[in-house]
Amino acid sequence: MVTSNRRTFSLQTPADLYRKLNFEALALHHNPPADLEHRAYAVMNAVTTAWQMKDWVYEALRQVHALNRLDEFAGRTIRGPKDFGTFLIDNSPWMNVCFQLATAAKHFEVGHDTGLEVLTRIEFQVDPETTVHELRGQDEIMVRTPHNSISGPGLVLLLDYIWSRALPRLGLLDAPEDAG
Fold it and tell me: For residues 156 and 40, is the Cβ–Cβ distance under 8 A?
C-alpha cells in the first residue's frame, strides 16, 4: 500500500512527478523565458525534478515490495537508493550532468574541476529555422562537458525522454502509445 504524502501537494507518485517534469520540459522547449536568469531558474527547477525522480522511484517500488524491478532494469543488484543514483550516473552521461547540476550547491568546492561548464551566452549557432542554416547570435543557457554541449532546455527535454522510457519499464507509468 502506497502512503500519501501531504507535503508534495497533488504529486504523490513517480508518474505525478514525471508529469511535472514533462510540463516543465515542454514549457522550456515551446516558450522559454526570454530573460536568461528566469530561464536558468526554470532549467534548474526541471533538472532538480529529474534528479529527485530516482528517490521517488526507489521509494514507490520499496513501498509495494517491488525493488526487484530495479535489479531487472539495471541488470544488476541495486543495493539502495544511493546505489540507484550511482547506476544512473554510470550509465547515462546526461543523468551524470543532471546529478552535477542538481547537487552543485551542496557539493561545491572552490577550485574543484568536474569537467562541467555552464554558460549563459554563446556567440553563434546554426539557426535550424532557416534553409540556409545561417549563423546568428543567440543568448542561451548552455551546458558543456568534455564530450558534449547542450542547451539547458535541450537537456531538460532529454531528461524528460530518459524518464519517459524508464518509468514504463519499471511499471510506474503507462507506456506511451506508439505513433503510427
Answer: no
Q: Could you tell me which residues come within 8 angstroms of residue 77 by beta carbon, excluding any fewer than 6 positions away?
A: 71
Pairing of β 122-126 and β 117-119: unpaired
| Global confidence as pTM | 0.81
For the stretch 34-69, pLDDT in tens is 888 899 899 999 999 999 999 999 999 999 999 999
Identify the sign of the CA torsion 3, 63, 162, 149.
positive
Cα 165 off chain centre by: 12
Helix axes 152-169, 14-30, angle to 10 degrees: 150
Residue type, 70: L
Cell numbers that stand for 166 in this block: 524508464
Other beta carbons within 10 angstroms of residue 124's beta carbon come to: 10
